[in-house]
User: Fold these one by one.
Assistant:
Number 1:
Amino acid sequence: MTNLTATVADPAASDAPVIAYPTPLLRIDGVTKKFGAHSAVDDLSLDIKAGEFFALLGPSGCGKTTLLRMLAGFEAPDTGKIELNGEDIAAVLPHQRPVNMMFQNYALFPHLNVRDNIGFGLKSAGLTRLGIDTRVAEMVALVKLQGLEKRRPDQLSGGQKQRVALARALARHPQLLLLDEPLAALDKKLREETQVELMALQRQLGTTFVIVTHDQEEAMTMADRIGVMNDGRLQQVATPRQLYEAPASRWVAEFVGDINIIEGGITHRDSHRLTIAGRDVGTLFAIEPRQPVGDAVICVAIRPEKIRLSRRGPATDLVNSGAMNSLEGVISDVGYLGGRSLYKVKLDRGATLRVALANTARLDVDAYSMGERVAAWFAPDDCVVLVQ
Amino acid sequence: MSARRIFTAPARLAAIPPYVWMVLFFLVPFGFVLKISLSQTAIAQPPYMPVFGLSEGIDGLKASFAALSLDNFRLLVSDNLYLASYLRSVLVAVVSTLILLAVGYPIAYGMARLPRRWQGIAMMLVIVPFWTSFLIRIYAWINILQHDGLLNKVLLALHVVSTPVVWLSTDSAMYLGIVYSYLPFMILPLYATLAKQDPSLIEAAADLGVSRIDAFWLVTVPLSLRGVGAGALLCFIPIMGEFVIPDLLAGSNALMIGQTLWLEFFTNKDWPVASATAIVLLGLLLIPLLVYDRLQRRQLEAR
């Protein structure tokens, strides 16, 4: 059907193998949507592949919901194109799109029972009465709501409502399922269980899911790829691991997870290794990023769990040769979080580093305490160099 | 069970004034009317007998009780005049309520879909006519509808008609007056339920492949039935007993029960028959109330 003919890459010929990608299921091309003078979505382009679980992640007001509503057809883009299977769907009304949405507040019909809610869109999908009954039964089984068919929405718990909303959105077998903060109304434990179920369901059905969330853990857990949005623009589109380990900008680095940011200037470069004078830190070594940094003023980002602590520093020859960064300071704060502890280290040069250590032993007689002198050390590989 | 416990002693005390009000201004007068309906007309002051009193002792009171009879109610059933009046009242009330629903629903729907800041203004426009006396407004309609009134002048000037049309003293004029007067009572409860509706339900319906028109019938209308019921009741019950509008705008060949009652009371000075008429009207009006109450209770039980 699709021409997934990857030319056998000759490793010597080129860095990037030439691959003829299939047409993406969804192509968003230069889409802008303005409300008054404010651009909710600003010249945004994105391809989403068939069968993908894609998450749009961003703070509230970043435009992710507006983008989702444009995909559903509730808003029309001011400029740009939205293509589904290579066809522009700008003029296609919501009720004619092979796209279904699961609403944030579920938007269940309060006057209809579970069965009629799930079957609501099936008559217009051209199913016979028998077909509707079969499909509804299928969906009820899929989301494990057997026995609740006759209940009305206000007789259901939050988790059950969420399942009805999901079943209703999936009942028409959409090519694309949009989920607007689907788990926001659930408590933490139920949310985590539901995340796993949603992933299993998506794999089982093979439907393309686009989920909007402000919860980065949720996006990380479920999505194949994440698009991080801010101010109506995509800041980075990457797998969860890339997003966390190789953020494309300082904003993304600070938005996703916890991170130490050290501002500084490049003083020396040799064979992909940078020597950096960090503000309030001292000399640091870092690996030059794949796209060389032009500016002399940069920042170094390092995740708290990449830093190790010890009472004595690493071997001096490691430090002197630039194979390890070692910074000395005093423990200024200890936060016990169960699985791990978060330490703040006030460096002698003035900066404060956050360090996360796993609590691997139940009785840790050796734990660091307030005021203790330590060396905080980390490898140049673990530093991410970002433009300011 | 717990709902009962919410009402503490002071909260229960707060419920006393309405009960006192009901007893003083509904139950006691109702007792008088009921008693008069069981009496006989008399040329006396008051114009009926027997009159209860202790002037003739306990025996006199007993004799008064023995004199009460259902004759007036028998008269109501036997004379076609009353039956026709009741039927006409029911017919007028039903037709008027249906017209009110047909006119009021689109207006309420439109109001609920207005931008928030316009909704208050629209609500004012619905209510403002109430600031003028009801009678003045009905007389204004007489002015508009009469032989050389505004309506005929406009129609003649536009050459829609060649001779003035008779509007006044017709059923059309009466329906016009009723619909005009009762429209706010239909619009406001409808607007209240429609404005409360979650707009994402309509989006959900559209998302599930249902067209705008179908979504209206499948989602908007069923969810507004409570408002429809409230509006219909608020209009139906007073229209049943309406006296002024049919008297001023309709012809005199058919009477509504309110008009018959007025005739009995003021023209014939037959208080007992007038009271019996009122009692039966009250009984008739209980039917739609009970039906509505039952429907609402069923809805609550379904939850």
Number 2:
Amino acid sequence: MNLNKLLPLFLFLPLGACSSVGYGDPDAVETINIDYGSTDLQGFAAKMVESMNTAPSLNYFEHPGKSQDKRVVVYFGGIDNATSEHIDTGSIRDSIQTSLLKGGKFRFVSGKPGQQEIGDQVAFQQGSGRVDPTQAKAFGRQLGADVVVYGTLRSIEKHKGRSLESGGMKTDDVYYKFTLQCDSIETAEVLWMEEKELRKTAKTGLFGG
Amino acid sequence: MQAHHMRFAGVLAGALLFGACASAPYGPQNTYSGREGALEIEREIGNSDLNSHLELRDIRSERRDGRLHVQFELSSDLSSAVQVEWMAHWFDERGFLIDVPRHWEPVKIGPRGHHPCTIVGPTPSASAWKLSVRPRNEVK
């Protein structure tokens, strides 16, 4: 057997020889590709949290039914995904709500999944006969939200193919704009609004994927 | 002659195999710590090369609506653009970490450029901060 024929095999062997699994830093900057990623989510959430925490218009909310605690009671609505990508915008909402809740400036009422769970539990406590009636919870005492927070994630994508002019380079560009706003439920007045933009550009050489 | 080729290929394959499994370690970082009311900041320089070209300057802080705002500027003296990332940790008056979501914020600073940043205490109790800056270290 001609050993020279085996030479390329030896050279390419290492390319497939190594694979690894490891825990990484969830806070690290991620640029695996141009698509929406964890760093974008974290950047959007951080900007909105900082802006809401420092907005004077959201420092307190007066209402005759409220006790001494004048903090704004928030219902966090939906974040509309108006991009062409499949993006779980619920995770942006979760990140923002988690940070705001830990910050202590706002109070939150339960969203749709929470209300479903609460409804099931109240029905169980009231109707199953298994719960001590003195401890059974009933409807009618939930907090009424002062404001609703909701937003939209939009994108503009541009692609430029390989050409002689670009030296065989392919360019993909995506621009994201995330807008979040807070409206008074009683008056529909927009009390706060913020937007965060970001742009990602990928240039791929002749032999790139 | 064939044996010589085989030996060469074996050595090359071994070297490539060794290199294939190496992964880049996270780069050393520089850390700047300050607290409310203090005029001085503490510097922990883990990356002297970065420190010699990238300066954290014009640091100022004040409380607005009960939260500590800190403003600083990242300034580069390099003749080409530099990509870095920064992250802030916040501590209360007794030095305990305030546990809120955080992340590395990527920044591109132009040639001999400046990048102003503002960080805001996540809770009213946040009174000290630690800012880490390191070269861009992406998950690619």
